[in-house]
Every structure is written in C-alpha cells, then in structure tokens.
From TrEMBL:
One of its GO terms (molecular function) is transmembrane transporter activity. This is Amino acid ABC transporter membrane protein (PAAT family). It comes from Alicyclobacillus sacchari. It is a multi-pass membrane protein. It is found in: Cell membrane. Residues 18-206 form the ABC transmembrane type-1 domain. The lineage of its organism: Bacteria, Bacillati, Bacillota, Bacilli, Bacillales. The keyword Membrane applies. CDD domains: TM_PBP2. Belongs to the binding-protein-dependent transport system permease family. HisMQ subfamily. Pfam families: BPD_transp_1. Keywords: Amino-acid transport, Cell membrane, Membrane, Transmembrane, Transmembrane helix, Transport. InterPro entries: AA_ABC_transptr_permease_3TM, ArtM/GltK/GlnP/TcyL/YhdX-like, MetI-like, MetI-like_sf. GO terms for cellular component: ATP-binding cassette (ABC) transporter complex.
Amino acid sequence: MNFFQFLSKYAGTFAQGALVTVELTLCGLIIGLILGVLVSLMNLSHIWPFRWFARLYTWVVRGTPLLVQLFIVYYGLPQVGLQLTPFLSAIIALGLNSAGYVAEIIRAGIQSIDPGQMEAAESLGMRYGQAMRRIIFPQAYRRLLPPIVNEFVALLKDSSLVSTISMTELMRIGQTVSSSTFMPMQSYITAALFYLAMTSIIVFFSGKLERWLEVRG
C-alpha cells in the first residue's frame, strides 16, 4: 500500500481524531483565556496576596512540563476522591497550563500601554476597573492578538500529549493506526499533515483578522 492509498483509506479516521483535537484545544483555550485574564489582573493588583498568588501560579505552570500537569490531574486527583474522565482531565490540564502563558501575555500587553493613559483616566474620575475596560483594554487587545494566536497554535500541538491518558484524539489515532497496519511512517506523516493543516488555517485567519483590525484603525 503506497502513501496515497493509505491516505484515502484512513483520512476519515484521522479527520475524526482531528475534530477531537480541535475540540480539546478550543475548550482549553477558553479556560486559559478566562483564567489568564483573572490571573493577569491579580498580578497587576495593588493587593499583595493577589499579586503573590498570580506570580506563584505563573511560576509553577510555566516552570513544569504540561505532561506532568496532565498526569497530576488525571492520575493524582483520584487519590483525593476526584475522578475525572480523560476528556475532562485533558481540558482542565490544557486550560490551567494555557492560563499561565495567557496571563503573562495579557500582563505584558497591558503594561506596554503608556502609564499616562491610566493616570489620565483616573484624573477624569474613572475607577480602576472602568479605566481598564474603557481605556487600557481597547488599546491593548491589538497587541495581544499575535501572541494569543501563537499560544493557540502551541496549545493545539501540545494537545497531542493527552494521547498518554488514552484520549482518542489525532495523535492517539496515529498510534492506533500505526499499530494495526504496521505502517508507522505513513501513520505519523498523516498525523503531521493534519496538524500542519490545522495550524496553517489558524495562522491564515489570524492574519486576516489582524489586517481587518488595522483597516478599522
């Protein structure tokens, strides 16, 4: 069986795995964005326990491998009575990991805005939350888009690690097909092509979005 015959026979199977990969990545990114915003605001807070917690969180998450975090969630939590499915364990681990990176991206984006903007907002009588929502965030979000997209791409590729907890996503499909057909080269090249296609689509549409935002001024 040559590669094209292999691809025509198993493309549908790999596509099903790719859909699961996309689902995992989107769920993980949504969790990461929500938690990342909260952690970044805590990091910028004037309340020191919030700052301490945010910095500790980002230090631990960014300083430990995602695979270790995934194993702690999937294998460790049952020891304290919290039994999770592979899918739920995967999106929690991906989300918590992503939040650490997203928090730093958002913090850096906010701090890149001229401090005079916040001072001007406060001089107009705005509270901190109002100034962030009306003045700082509208200026920062364009600077945040490229690194957030990079995090999306990285998270999609990192999702391949959830195959280690028997989650049937794209990488796991590649392993299963490789074992059943004894054709590892074709199996993993096909998986790589699917990953490449998905990341290319993300980069393409993010570029379109960036240009659209530039046109809007």
